[in-house]
Amino acid sequence: MQLFRNFRFLLIIILTGCCLVFVFGCWNRPAPQVSTQQPQTNSQTNSQTNSTSVNSQTPANSDVTDIASQPPKPPANQTPQQLLEKTVTAYKSASSYSDHGEVRIIGKMTNPNTEPASWLCTVAFQSPNKLRLEINEGKLVSDNDDCFAQIRPLPNQVLQFPTPKYWSLDVLFQDMFLDQAMDVGLPDTIIRFPPQLILLFAESPLKTLVPEGSKTEFLDPQQIGDTLCDVIRIVHSEGNRLLWISRINHALLRFDYYVEGLPVPQGIESIQMIRIDLSDAQFDYEIAPEAFQMQQPQDAEIVSEFQPAEIISSTEKKPENPLAVLAQMREEHRKELQLMIEKDYYATLSPELNLLPEQELALVVPPKLPETFVLKEIWKQPLTGAGNITVITADTTDTADSGVQLLIPCEGNSLAFFDLSGKLLQKVKPEGLHNDELLTLIRTKTDETGKRYIGVSSIGGSAVHVFDELLKPVFSYSPDTVEGLKWGIADFRFIDLHGNNSPAMSPATSPAMIVSVIALDNGKDSVRAIDLRGKEIWKDDSISSPFQVDSFLIGGNREILCLEVQKQRSLLSVYNLQGKRLTQPILEEGRQILWFNVADIDGDGQSEIGVLHADETEKDFRFAIWDRNGGFLWNQPLPNGEYQKSIEQIITGDIYGDAVQEWIIPAPDGRVFIFDQNGNILDSFGFGKFLTGLAVVVSDKDKRILITADNEFVTAFAVTDKANDTNDTNDTKDTNDANVTNDANTIQTNNP
Q1: What is the pLDDT of residues 567-583, one digit of tens each?
Q2: How many other C-beta atoms are found inside a 10 Å radius of the C-beta of residue 230?
Q3: How much is the pLDDT for 505?
Q4: Distance between CA 283 and CA 82 in Å, rounded?
Q5: Cα 385 to chain centroid, rounded
Q6: Distant-in-sequence, close-in-space partners of 604: CB < 8 Å, separation ≥ 6
Q7: Which pLDDT does position 426 carry in this prediction?
Q8: Which of 87, 225, 347, 575 sits at a 20 to 30 Å CA gap from 603?
Q9: What does DSSP say about strands 301-303 and 154-162: parallel, antiparallel, or unpaired?
């Protein structure tokens, strides 16, 4: 049950974070402050190292976005891959390496007078095994015999272990608390360890620095101080990065990661990038012997593992067995490092790899044109961290385009509104959201009076926030405030509990939401009905792990459907509108439901339920229509693999313009599959990139529009029948950003 396990692991991580708070007591790392200028490095000569373009008059304090947005101009004598391989060779063949590394956040502070802050990321290495690290809040020194380490949270302890013959990252960070204290500050899903350590000690450094599915390209050469650098841009669905490589010795002098879709800490208005400056990196220089000696604090305790003095809970609750908690955490940490060795991959492994080591992230396939219709790009707008697309239709009798809007989460916790012409109407962070709330669940409906409600939440979040159409807060519902326990929101839907076919949700007549929640401590999983004042109407806590929830119409009656997970099996449980469980059909042996969607595909007034399901090995993925008796009406195979981003995995739309809906499946490898109501595959195509959102809109004059979102852009394509297609592009926007060519059988895009 792969997708459920991903969600459950997110909740485990939340609990693990609490345990780490227990271990460190009241210690909290201060949030790094932000510089709005390009940072200076901490070089030995204290010289200015702001970057300037070689071939332009760009001022030294110019915004770094200017560099990142330049068109690539590759040198004639080598490719980016060849230069990266030379860089790896330089690190692997060096007799010594040293730098005075520094990590900074580039962005905009809420208070412009706030002084920027930084933290160390310094490495000195003498082959074969002498090492000195000062990274964030940890320090490690090794000579030929012993290795000693200290961390700020436990200042009176010194970790000691034998110096290995050769260093590897799993040996270096074998202690869980040292690993955490030396957090480099980059998102764990991007790169866990400092890039210079990856280049020195990872067996295959480019597997981490240039992840699978990336595109590499040269930007214009740049200078750091007096050093000329080749700049390689790595374009990836998880976020773009720049590597600044010295032309003198092929050392990595700067690593820039462009933050996309991450929560912004308090005191920071916006984050543009996280930068690691290594501007004085050098090879094969003699390093003073004193660098590999540590002055230990008086009366320090020598330990083989960092040990907390006591377990203190910030929530005034102690774990029942704190030693067992620590032992379990250490064992999970050990397994993670071991898995890194097996995978030969030294960035942080995603949670699904820890739980399901046989399951790999899907790789994007090359672009491919649809065969049964034509796509023509009509507009394309940049939108950082764009997610699932919600189509808001006009509440009028006409179908004018002016009444249709696209609602898209972006930048972690903001919402963007576009009209169908591609105009950005507004981008706003809804009032009352915490900085760490990532908006992954967006739902909207109108009540019987025409008033629109917009609900937002995050998978695993603590609350559902409901707003009116002007994004003014209506209420927030948090299970924590009801019972004082910890919960995570799994899903929620607006429905009409009166059972008629209208989406009426007026507070005077009908409750508004069905919410499924997962317990994070001693509470019980449950499905709950909430009215539009935020009051709980009913609750069923006999359910286990309700991953998804929705409603459907059958025989004129509306019922509630919930995807429930019980140990190694999944089932779709059915409730009536009063919260009584009606049926609990079990799937055929060996199959697990991963996702479902409800729609009236054929327009007969009855709901069809499309499901994605897999076998126990999660290698055999299929799409089917679910029979209420527990079987499938038909099955069609799909590509397997992990989705790179959270996305609605089944949508519907009238892509052929025949007033009949189709099932549309964005697969994890970037392809899109279209099925009719009888299970026939109608088409498949792809854009050569991972999608984060997908929608089909039928506008006025029966124009069909396919909307896609990825991590950087929202793009609209006009959909036309092949038989009616001509080369006339009067109805499409003339753009150099992308074009579609039928003769090449590929959708070609030239993204910046």
Answers
A1: 667 778 889 888 888 87
A2: 21
A3: 37
A4: 20
A5: 8
A6: none
A7: 93
A8: 575
A9: parallel
